Amino acid sequence: MTTIINFADGEKNLDWLGLTDAIAAGHQRPKAEISDSFLYRGKDTLLQRQAWIDGLGIAVKSATVFPDNPSRDVPMIHGAVTLFDDAHGILAALLDFHLVTKWKTAGDSLLAARRLARPDSSKILIVGAGTVGRNLHAAYSAAFPNAQFTVWNRTQANAEKMAAEIDGLTVETDLETAVGEADIVTSATMSTEPTLRGDWLQPGQHIDLIGAYRPDMREIDDVALQRAQIFVDSFDTTLDHIGELKIPLGDGVITRADVLADYYKLDAFQRYANDDITLFKNGGGAHLDLMTSSYILDQFQK
C-alpha cells in the first residue's frame, strides 16, 4: 500500500539536524541522475523534476504554477512528490509538495552552514521576510540555538509582520549595517540585481544565498564573490543555470576553479582560516528532493 504523507503529519517526527545528516549520507551514494521538464499553457506551467539515486530510489516532484490563481483566491502553486522504492520501482509514498520543499530548501543551506560557518556564530541576519525566511529561522535555530536573529526586508512592514510571529526576532532597517554586524547572512529574495555588497562583508562571515534560481537572478555582487571562498550544493544545478554564478563566470569575474566544491566532495566543505569569508549557493535540485523525501518517509514510519 502506498503511504500518503500530508504536511501536518509529515512534520511530526522531523528534525533539522537529522535531515542535514541524511543529505550528507545521500551524497555518499552514487551520483544522482537528474532532469527537469516543463509544459506550458499560456502563463500556466507544469514543472517536473526527477532524480534517481542507486540504492536510495526515485523521486518525481511535480508542481503546477498558475499565476492567476491568487486573483481567484486560490494558491498559485500546487504539487506532490512521488517516491518509488529502489529495489522494484514500486510506488512507496506520495508526499505533500510544500512539506518536501520547505525541508529541502532550508535543510540544504543548513548543511553548508554546519560545515562552513564558525561554530560560535551568534548573530544571524535573514534577508527576506517570506515563507523561506521563516523556514530558515527554524532551521538555523536548530544548529545555532543561542544565536540572536534579525530580519531585513525591502518592504519593512513584511519584516515587522515576521518579527511579530517569531519570539526574539528583531527588525533591521539598514541593510549595510546589519550585514556588517552579522556572523551569518542567509538571503532568500527574488532579486535580479544584487542586494548584498561585497564591500559590506567582514572577515569570518558565512554567506548563504538561496533566492536566485533563474539565469537572470543575483543576490550578491562581483566583489563578494571575489572576496569569498565559494561552495555550491551541486555543480550541475548552479554553474550554468543560475545568474549568481553563471553571469560572473561568463564575464570572467571568477573562474570555475574558484568554486571549490559541491556536496559530492563534502570533505572539502570546511573553513580553512577563522577570518575566511565563506559563501554557499543553494541551487536545489531533484536529488535533494529525493534525499529529503526518503528522510521524511523514514521518520514517518517510525
Could you characterize what this model shows?
This protein is α/β, with parallel strands linked by helices and 302 residues long. The chain has two domains: 3-101 and 287-300, ornithine cyclodeaminase, domain 1, CATH 3.30.1780.10; 108-284, Rossmann fold (3-Layer(aba) Sandwich). It has helices at 7-11, 16-26, 97-116, 131-143, 156-165, 175-181, 222-227, 235-238, 243-251, 286-300; strands spanning 3-5, 33-41, 44-53, 57-65, 77-84, 91-96, 123-127, 148-152, 170-171, 184-187, 206-209, 229-232, 259-261, 278-281. The strands form two sheets. The chain has an eight-stranded parallel β-sheet with strand order 9-8-7-10-11-14-12-13, with helices on both faces. Strands 1-6-5-4-3-2 form a six-stranded mixed β-sheet. A hairpin with a 6-residue loop joins β5 and β6. α2 (16-26) crosses α3 (97-116). The protein is globular, with a radius of gyration of 19 Å. The two termini are 17 Å apart.
Task: Considering the chains and any ligands shown, give keywords for the structure.
33% helix; ornithine cyclodeaminase, domain 1; Rossmann fold; single chain; 302 residues; 8-stranded parallel β-sheet; 14 strands; alpha/beta
CATH first level of the largest domain: Alpha Beta
Largest sheet: 8 strands, parallel
Distance between the termini: 17 Å
Q: SSE string, helix = H, strand = E?
A: EHHEEEEEHEHEHEHEEHEHHEEH
Distinct helical segment count: 10
Q: Could you list the spans in which at least 5 consecutive residues all have pLDDT below 50?
A: none
The percent of residues in helical segments reads: 25-40%
Radius of gyration: 19 Å
What gross morphology would you assign?
globular
According to CATH, the fold-level topology of the largest domain is Rossmann fold
* The CATH H-level homologous superfamily of the largest domain: NAD(P)-binding Rossmann-like Domain
Mean pLDDT: 96
**SS-based class:** alpha/beta
* Strand coverage percent: 25-35%
CATH architecture of the largest domain: 3-Layer(aba) Sandwich
Overall domain count: 2
What's the β-strand tally? 14
Give the strand order, joined by hyphens, for the main sheet: 9-8-7-10-11-14-12-13
